[in-house]
Design brief:
By secondary structure, the protein is of the alpha+beta class. It folds into two domains: 108 residues, Lipocalin (Beta Barrel), CATH 2.40.128; 112 residues, Mago nashi (Mago nashi protein, 2-Layer Sandwich), CATH 3.30.1560. Helix content is 27%, strand content 37%. The longest helix is centred in the N-terminal third of the chain and has 28 residues.
């Protein structure tokens, strides 16, 4: 009789484990790319904060109350953690600074998530630190109207890359004929995702981390993004050392030009 009871107990525990695994798989699938509007941090109601996931490239970005933040994340099952997050350096009112500190602290502590009633719950162990709802009209779309131009120029060298209409074209010498390749759907989504992870309005204000281009110590790099008819152009920077906010997109553009036909 004891053996039968023990067998039944083990069977029920195993069934429960299988059910949990199904839930984990479902939750992971529901962490969609796109912008989420943050409504609660540590139980307090919050307005105007966002967190945006690019599930294709495992990138995260958003607005934390004063500045934009950006970085990487890792996910396995319902385990979720963020890497070191960078931010822009805008000065704001004390109240906004406190809100930002609270959000960044919460993001740093998060180690899991769950989806409940279409809401994203970001967790520390079993405690809910942050609640957000997805902005349905902000999902990464394949038909985004985007054009991106990158150039690296010195007196003796020239490189220019343009991505538009699911196509990348580039020249490695002045007056050379452009080479062109079509992008597949996955590559286009990656480009759009990396672009959407950048606060385009902030691009002209991003500082170059080094200034060697000012005395011919490096090629002059520039990035220009045109989205839905509006153009955002960066300040000049040392090619190979752009502002970290722009680095992933530029790296992807260069990698696409290294593909063989």
């Amino acid at each position: 009789m004891k053996l039968i009871t023990l067998f039944i107990t083990v069977f029920l525990l195993n069934c429960g484990g299988a059910k949990d695994a199904t839930v984990m798989k479902k939750d992971t699938a529901n962490l969609n790319s796109g912008k989420y509007i943050v409504s609660t941090i540590n139980g307090e109601n919050i307005n105007d904060l966002t967190i945006e996931f690019d599930t294709e490239n495992k990138k995260v970005s958003g607005f934390s109350g004063c500045n934009r933040f950006f970085g990487d994340y890792t996910i396995e099952g319902t385990t979720l953690s963020f890497g070191a997050l960078g931010t822009t350096r805008k000065m704001c009112a004390p109240k906004n600074n406190i809100t930002e500190q609270n959000m960044l602290k919460a993001l740093n502590e998060i180690n899991g998530f769950k989806i409940s009633r279409s809401r994203l719950h970001l967790l520390k162990d079993n405690n809910i630190l942050l609640i957000a709802s997805q902005q349905a009209d902000n999902k990464i779309a394949q038909n985004e109207t985007i054009s991106i131009e990158y150039s690296a120029v010195t007196r003796g060298s020239y490189k220019s890359i343009t991505i538009a209409n699911k196509e990348v074209s580039w020249v490695n010498e002045r007056n050379a004929k452009a080479e062109t390749l079509k992008l597949d759907d996955k590559q286009w989504r990656q480009v759009v995702g990396l672009t959407n992870a950048i606060d385009l309005v902030a691009i002209p204000e991003l500082e170059a981390p080094s200034k060697a281009h000012q005395y011919d110590g490096a090629a002059i790099g520039t990035l220009k993004v045109t989205k839905n008819g509006v153009t955002y152009q960066s300040q000049a920077f040392d090619a190979g050392n752009p502002n970290t906010i722009l680095a992933d997109l530029i790296e992807k553009m260069i990698a696409l030009t290294n593909r063989k036909k």
